[in-house]
Specification:
Its main location: membrane. Keywords: Cytochrome c-type biogenesis, Membrane, Transmembrane, Transmembrane helix. InterPro entries: Cyt_c_bgen_Ccs1/CcsB/ResB (IPR023494), ResB-like_domain (IPR007816). By secondary structure, the protein is α+β, with helices and mostly antiparallel strands. The protein has a 6-stranded antiparallel beta sheet. Strands 6, 11, 12, 13 and 21 form a 5-stranded antiparallel beta sheet that branches. The two termini are about 45 Å apart.
Length: about 550
């Protein structure tokens, strides 16, 4: 790979299409094709080196086609993650493998088996994001520095072939070249062009900074991707749901045990049906509920003293949490998002001796934290053999539970039978009372439901997002680059003295009509012949050829 020496004396790297000094075309110098001015014909690293493994990796990621391919794959993968709700949006207490199968059937099972239920935190999705970021960075570096060097070192005096192979080009003869150039220079200055002179030639340039718009855009996108990736680093992003029963204190998820919240009371109120303001609307939507208020009287605690079972909690703050009034502390926020009224809290049972028809005792089971054994008045003990908070029979006709929420509690109690010295087993649930002793003999003791107690639950969401500054800055820079590169074209007009004529050539990276208006202003005031748009000429030639 040899360097290319230009007749002007500049040594250009291998792969250079246009001399960085005089602009002479080095690739196809005898061709009449218009020059590819996308990167000023400068050599890019991906065009120069291709031997080592680093070169091959660089060349792979610098390809625009590869970048577009990664974007398409990422978009497809992201869309797959929206077919069904992600695991974080499942109802609290649900098991993913059970939830997806019950809610979405066979497709849900496949969705879970493929790991799409937690896709955005998966290693392969993060690898896609990393590949996209790598492609953006390498492609930008591969193009930015050659373009920057080419524009920085461009001379005013340009080679004849450079001038002829611009899209807008023309020659004309004028009586007073100096006066013509001065008049053109004054007009271009009024139009805010930067003027450079060399050897009697003129280069008028405007909005070069707009060429960096795509690269500013890429910088913003990279910062945005970094911010999105940081969401999967511990401590940077938290979005968790929690349920807290009245009177209970629970650790705030995502805080590493640094904060606890107590639900001192939950308030639920509906709009008054007799209120004239809301009466018409409520009557029209009789099937709907109209919550006026659901509020959690929350108290925030932090552990005090050394870690241990008897660790005390110190009150930090208290705040009533409502839908539009969140509880802010440290970098966290607690939002009121849901509630559950009248959840079963306790069940009371009576135990009757079937031989004497006397009640031998009673006991109360805390459904959220049941004891293993309960003592009766007659000195006997009742033991909980099995507990099913949300009971159902599985496909094998065996009792099991959907989750740990006591929506349909059921128990298998066991007691010692003084007659047989064996253990009696009783299955007891809502509207269910069966003898399940292995020998199926009649149980000595009979259990019955004696009462129940309920409480309310509050559903809270805890959020912490330290990635917002990255996302905001990245998004802002992205938009700046988008505007910078979209609305301001980089315009250049060359006026040269060659062979006793005035040569005019012009180029812009977009929006050719305004550039043509600027040239028209010059030609009207100076007598320079209007240059041709060589693309229009080629189009007209093609039409003439077709017509013939």
């Amino acid at each position: 790979m040899m360097n290319k020496n230009c007749e002007c004396g500049r040594v250009n790297p291998y792969g250079t299409e246009v001399c960085g000094s005089c602009g002479k075309p080095l690739a196809d110098p005898d061709s009449n094709r218009l020059l590819n001015m996308r990167y000023e014909g400068a050599a890019r690293r991906s065009q120069i080196y291709s031997t080592s493994i680093i070169d091959k990796i660089w060349n792979f990621f610098s390809s625009v086609k590869v970048g577009i391919g990664i974007i398409i794959v990422t978009i497809i993968a992201s869309s797959l993650g929206t077919i069904f709700p992600q695991e974080m949006f499942m109802p609290p207490g649900e098991t993913p493998e059970v939830y997806y199968e019950e809610e979405y059937g066979g497709l849900g099972q496949v969705y879970y088996a493929l790991g799409l239920h937690n896709m955005y935190g998966s290693w392969w999705y993060m690898l896609l994001i990393a590949a996209l970021g790598t492609s953006i960075i390498i492609a930008s570096i591969d193009r930015f520095f050659p373009l920057y060097k080419a524009l920085k070192s461009q001379r005013v005096t340009r080679h004849k072939s450079f001038m002829k192979r611009q899209r807008i080009f023309g020659t004309s003869r004028v009586e007073d070249v100096d006066h013509t150039f001065q008049a053109a220079q004054d007009i271009l200055k009024k139009k805010r062009y930067n003027i450079r002179e060399e050897n009697g030639h003129i280069l008028a340039e405007k909005n070069r900074w707009a060429r960096w718009g795509p690269y500013v855009n890429h910088i913003g996108l990279i910062i945005f991707l970094i911010g999105a990736s940081l969401r999967f680093f511990p401590g940077m992003y938290v979005d968790e749901n929690m349920w807290v029963r009245e009177g209970e204190t629970e650790v705030v998820p995502g805080t590493s045990g640094d904060y606890y919240v107590e639900n001192q009371g939950f308030t639920y109120e509906e709009f008054d049906e007799d209120d004239e303001i809301f009466a018409d609307g409520m009557e029209a939507s009789a099937a709907l509920q109209f919550e006026e208020t659901f509020r959690t009287d929350a108290v925030l605690y932090r552990p005090e003293g050394p870690l241990g079972v008897d660790q005390e909690l110190e009150e930090v703050d208290r705040h009533p949490i409502e839908v539009n009034d969140a509880f802010h502390f440290d970098d966290y926020t607690l939002y009121q998002v849901d509630y559950k009224l009248d959840e079963l809290k306790e069940l009371s049972f009576e135990v009757e001796d079937t031989e004497t028809d006397e009640v031998v005792g009673s006991f109360t089971v805390d459904l959220n934290d049941p004891d293993d054994t309960y003592a009766l008045d007659n000195g006997e003990d009742v033991r909980i053999n099995s507990y099913f908070p949300n009971f159902y029979m599985n496909d094998e006709n065996m009792p099991t539970t959907e989750n740990d929420v006591p929506d349909n509690p059921a128990f298998i109690f066991e007691m010692a039978n003084p007659d047989t010295e064996a253990l009696d087993h009783t299955f007891l649930g809502i509207q269910a009372n069966y003898n399940v002793s292995p020998d199926q003999e009649e149980n000595r003791y009979e259990f019955s439901l004696d009462g129940f107690d309920t409480n309310d639950l509050t559903g809270l969401t805890v959020r912490k997002d330290n990635t917002i500054p990255y996302l905001s800055v990245g998004g802002a820079i992205f938009l700046i680059g988008l505007v910078q590169g979209s609305y301001w074209p980089h315009r250049r007009i060359w006026l040269q003295r060659k062979d006793g004529e005035v040569w005019l050539a012009a180029h812009t990276n977009k929006h050719w009509a305004p550039l043509k208006k600027d040239i028209d202003a010059i030609t009207k005031e100076t007598g320079i012949t209007a240059p041709r748009d060589q693309i229009d000429d080629e189009y007209e030639k093609g039409e003439d050829k077709d017509n013939s």
